[in-house]
């Protein structure tokens, strides 16, 4: 049974040759990017500032450290279980794949079609469980070609057909036969190769066609948007993913990080609070969430509370106490992380800011350290308020790209141009001319004041 649908963005035969032509070094770099994108959800040390304790290495999944530390069985974190289940499934499928001869001729495919289908299903299942547990290499690319030949030749159960017009005049319409596994295979290849723009297109097709994996596809597309520094689109996908599958609470953590990085304190505070309510106590992102909550809560303390009985003055002590509680919980979660993983969490921007704010001390005129931390905390609160300035000025008003994140870790030639403010109102800024045009037509032409 076949249906007519919009054509997928990319087909297997278009993807595999391009990746095979890449050098080994290019593929290693692409694999590293797909495993560890240096974005707002990163918990590793980007600045390579190491203290006395050993710190987690970059470009390596934290969960692997549990095996190294011999503590994998000491946690019930469901994400840990899912990662190792995916890793085992992937390794088993890879072992079976090595028993299948290479080649895409019809006779070989017919002889080994059961094994080809079985291995493909398990590889795709592992990728959907946790993409970080899967590593792309040449033999898997060859399997993609073999599976494509099998699908086109046998039109198996569950197959659908897409129809697309050819770019050439008077040419016949082009039909492509696909299955869910073949579409996911294309996504896996594009993801592993760091071809995020093409990956976004194909994931969009998968979201429309396969309701049962919609939530997972939204998460993957959000990661692609994050890699491309399109944080507005990233947030939209993560919000929809949460609405689709509320059980995936780590999306709250990621959203909190993105909103924090783009200086949207209220939204960041909301998502971090939602996350810590339901997060597993061994979650690898829990320390970061508590550090962020400590900072965000502190910077929300009222300013200028000079009258002792004013509402602001009454709120100050409770807010400062709440912020200190979050900082204490962050330190406790950090100790649990070290106990499990054998390393400390890196000093990313969030953790560093929290320590700077909460370890501050003030001295009186005699040079003695004050035991009451309130003055230092209020001073830190005012400094944080200035740091969380208007996001319309510190980030692109259209795509949300902030300068501090977009430029982080990039070589000089790859760094984007600085944000440019609107010449008329000087209240919003843009990263590019297309973003300015899009935002102007959508809303800004109605609000811009000369």
UniProtKB/TrEMBL annotation:
PROSITE patterns: ZF_MYND_2 (PS50865). GO terms for molecular function: zinc ion binding. Keywords: Metal-binding, Zinc, Zinc-finger. Residues 27-57 are annotated as: Disordered. Residues 396-448 form the MYND-type domain. InterPro entries: TPR-like_helical_dom_sf, Znf_MYND. Residues 35-57 have a biased composition (Basic and acidic residues). This is MYND-type domain-containing protein. It comes from Linnemannia gamsii. The lineage of its organism: Eukaryota, Fungi, Fungi incertae sedis, Mucoromycota, Mortierellomycotina.
């Amino acid at each position: 049974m076949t249906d007519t649908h919009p054509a997928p963005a990319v087909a297997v035969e278009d993807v595999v040759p391009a990746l095979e032509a890449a050098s080994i070094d290019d593929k290693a770099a692409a694999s590293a990017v797909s495993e560890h994108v240096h974005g707002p959800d990163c918990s590793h040390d980007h600045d390579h500032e190491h203290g006395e304790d050993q710190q987690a290495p970059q470009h390596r999944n934290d969960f692997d450290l549990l095996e190294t530390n011999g503590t994998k069985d000491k946690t019930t974190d469901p994400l840990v279980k899912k990662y190792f289940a995916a890793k085992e499934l992937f390794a088993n499928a890879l072992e079976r794949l090595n028993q299948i001869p290479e080649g895409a001729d019809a006779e070989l495919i017919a002889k080994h079609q059961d094994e080809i289908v079985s291995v493909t299903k398990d590889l795709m299942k592992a990728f959907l469980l946790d993409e970080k547990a899967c590593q792309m290499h040449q033999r898997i690319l060859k399997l993609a070609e073999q599976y494509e030949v099998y699908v086109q030749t046998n039109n198996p159960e569950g197959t659908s057909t897409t129809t697309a017009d050819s770019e050439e005049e008077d040419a016949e319409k082009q039909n492509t036969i696909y299955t869910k596994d073949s579409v996911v295979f294309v996504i896996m290849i594009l993801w592993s190769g760091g071809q995020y723009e093409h990956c976004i297109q194909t994931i969009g097709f998968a979201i429309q066609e396969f309701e049962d994996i919609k939530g997972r596809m939204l998460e993957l597309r959000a990661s692609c948007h994050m890699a491309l520094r399109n944080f507005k689109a990233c947030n939209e996908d993560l919000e929809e993913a949460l609405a689709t599958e509320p059980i995936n609470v780590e999306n709250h953590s990621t959203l909190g990080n993105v909103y924090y990085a783009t200086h949207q304190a209220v939204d960041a505070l909301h998502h971090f609070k939602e996350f810590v309510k339901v997060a597993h106590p061994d979650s690898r992102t829990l320390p970061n969430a508590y550090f962020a909550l400590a900072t965000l809560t502190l910077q929300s303390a009222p300013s200028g509370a000079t009258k002792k009985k004013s509402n602001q003055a009454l709120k100050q002590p409770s807010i400062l106490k709440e912020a200190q509680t979050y900082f204490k919980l962050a330190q406790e979660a950090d100790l649990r992380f070290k106990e499990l993983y054998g390393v400390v969490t890196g000093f990313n921007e969030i953790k560093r800011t929290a320590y700077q704010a909460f370890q501050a001390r003030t001295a009186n005129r005699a040079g003695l350290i004050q035991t009451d931390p309130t003055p230092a905390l209020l001073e830190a609160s005012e400094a944080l308020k200035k740091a969380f300035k208007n996001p319309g000025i510190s980030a692109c008003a259209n795509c949300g790209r902030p300068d501090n994140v977009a430029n982080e870790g990039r070589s000089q030639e790859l760094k984007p141009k600085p944000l440019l403010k609107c010449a008329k109102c000087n209240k919003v800024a843009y990263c590019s001319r297309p973003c300015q045009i899009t935002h102007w037509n959508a809303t800004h032409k109605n609000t811009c004041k000369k």
